[in-house]
Every structure is written in C-alpha cells, then in structure tokens.
Design a protein that fits this description.
The protein is mainly beta. Helices cover 6% and strands 50% of the residues. A hairpin with a 3-residue loop joins strand 16 and strand 17.
C-alpha cells in the first residue's frame, strides 16, 4: 500500500523530489496527550483502534488496537497495555455494546486466508480487560481489509461491513441469539479500486467508506438500500491527499456532527460537517510532549467525557512512524481539535 502511494507521489512530483505532496489548504496543529505502549512486532504492524467507553467511570475506558502481525491489544487511557489476545492477521476492528449476556462485541477483519474473507468475533470482558474469542465467520472470496459495525436504530440488529482489498463491500447480518454467533451475507456493493477504512452512523444508517486513491464515499447501510455510492470528497491533493485511510464519526443530535478521514499522504486529517458532509478544515498531530503522527491508517473518535485529560471526547489514531520504537496509537482530546479548527 505504502509502496504504491510513494510511487504515485513521486510520479506526481515529476520524480524531482522525495518530499510528499502536501495539501495547499490551511492545516492546523494539535498535539497528542497520551501514547500507547508500542506494539511488539516490527515494520507495518499497528493498524486500527476502537474505543469502549465505561459509562460508570469514563476514566476507566479501554482502547482496542490491532497488531496485524500478532493479535489484538487492550490499552487503558494512560496508554498501558492491560490485555493481549494472540490472533495473527487481523486488520480493522470495531465494537458495539449490545447488552445482555454478550455485552460488548468486538469484530475484526480476518486475513489469515487471503483468498477467503472472514470476520473474527470476540466478547470484551471489561472487568478482566481481555478479549474472549467467540467465532470466526466466513464472508466470501477475497482478501478482508476494512471492517465496521452497524447497530440499526429501529430494532438494534447488528450488521458487519467487510471492505475487501479490491473495493468490494460485503454486508453481514450477525445473529447473537445463540451461544455461538452466526452470520449471513445479505448484500454486496463495489467501489472501483483498493478500499479499507469505513464507519457507519448508527443514527442515520449511512455507511462511509474510503477508497484509498479516489476519496470518501457514502452508501445507504440498509440491506435493501441502494448499492450506488455518493461521492463526498476526492483524494485530489486538496482536502485529502491519497491515501484516504481511516474514517471516524462525531455524531451530534439527530443527524449532525462530523465525519473525519485520514489524509495519509500528507499526515493530516480532513473534517466534514454533517449532515451534508461539508468540508470545514484539516489538522495534523504534531510534536508536543509526545512525538507527532505520520502515515495514519485507522482512526476512531468517541464523544463524551473520558476523565480530565479527555473531557471533550477521545480521538485515537494509529501512528505509522513511531521511530525509533515500533508503531503505536496516539490519544488526542477532541476538544483541542475543535478549538484549533474553530468548530
């Protein structure tokens, strides 16, 4: 992925310089407050985070982060690893608190078989701070890449969306009514080229997907909805510099808030105001007390207080260049991002 991106950036620059293409648009700066312990494996390993908010004691919330070469980490809000579940070749991760005996369900795209896409399902034991494996669900032919969940507002039914590397998006109805969950593919959609990052707005039933070298799209998430995507933003070197990678939501009210996409090509993040997904600005996570962030893949955002350090919401990103240590995840106060952008 990064090799292709570097080739394209060099081509666009006329091969005259190894400097990345940078957006000409104003881009504000924020700093991370916390970073997680680095993952144990070398090279491109850390990939995608998810957040579980402890409603009783938000400062005791947890972050789930994939190491696509080793397994799934659980971190506290001080960045300490408090749990680890070995499971090689997991890529993107998402979670929903479905209540009942299942509690918090964690789903990850499983790439152990590159010819057969799968979803790995876990239950998050919030007391022990560990993931309990439940089942691996077959999806269909192809290489699983992106992954996001949707809990439909009308009946609380749970669906997974697996974004395959070739741009196909399979929607899976997940049945949690038995001891071992099951799943059924109910729809397939298609983008033209390699895609990965996705997120679903549980309020509105809108699925957002990043097509890496093209831009950000949205679909109707309903199983019987249209398979035709609507373009939101192009990765044309302005709002987004390809690759377009992780996607996250800040839902406010019935259909407002923001959608954020990782502009990996120039180490930034583009922000769009809902419901019309109107562009409002860009930001970077630069050096502060903690080193800055480059080449972000997965991102996650959750509103609400998370203790004194993150009183305005929590934004978590994968740091693709945490040298001299291995990759990790950085935690930023959403309130600081809002102030910097004037939101």
């Amino acid at each position: 992925m990064r090799g292709l991106r570097l080739f394209l950036l060099l081509f666009l620059a006329g091969c005259a310089s190894t400097q990345p293409v940078m957006s000409p648009l104003p881009t504000v700066s924020v700093a991370a407050k916390v970073e997680t312990q680095p993952v144990a494996t070398m090279e491109d390993a850390a990939d995608d985070p998810a957040i579980w908010r402890n409603a009783v004691n938000p400062a005791q919330s947890l972050i789930i982060g994939t190491d696509k070469r080793a397994g799934v980490h659980v971190y506290d809000l001080q960045g300490r690893q408090v749990g680890f579940t070995p499971s090689p070749r997991l890529n993107n991760v998402d979670l929903r608190d479905v209540g009942g005996s299942m509690g918090v369900i964690v789903a990850a795209s499983d790439r152990q078989d590159l010819s057969q896409a799968q979803i790995a399902l876990f239950r998050l034991d919030t007391s022990a701070k560990t993931l309990v494996p439940l089942v691996t669900l077959p999806v269909g032919p192809g290489e699983a890449y992106g992954m996001c969940l949707w809990q439909r507002a009308g009946d609380m039914a749970l669906f997974g969306f697996v974004v395959l590397k070739d741009g196909r998006i399979d929607q899976i109805a997940i049945d949690l009514n038995t001891a071992i969950p099951s799943g059924k593919v109910v729809r397939s959609m298609k983008l033209g080229t390699q895609s990965e990052g996705c997120v679903v707005d549980d309020r509105t039933g809108i699925l957002y997907v990043a097509e890496e070298d093209v831009g950000l799209w949205k679909f109707d998430a309903a199983p019987d909805g249209s398979n035709v995507p609507t373009a939101i933003a192009m990765a044309d070197g302005n709002e987004i510099v390809m690759d377009a990678e992780g996607v996250a939501l800040a839902p406010i009210g019935a259909d407002g808030g923001y959608v954020i996409v990782s502009s990996q090509g120039d180490n930034a993040y583009a922000v769009y105001k809902l419901p019309k997904a109107t562009y409002v600005g860009r930001f970077r996570i630069n050096d502060g007390a903690i080193d800055g962030v480059q080449e972000t893949d997965g991102i996650e955002l959750m509103l609400g207080a998370f203790g004194s350090d993150f009183s305005g919401g929590l934004f978590v990103v994968q740091d693709g260049d945490n040298m001299p240590e291995t990759q990790n995840f950085k935690l930023v106060d959403w309130a600081e991002i809002k102030r910097a952008l004037g939101l």
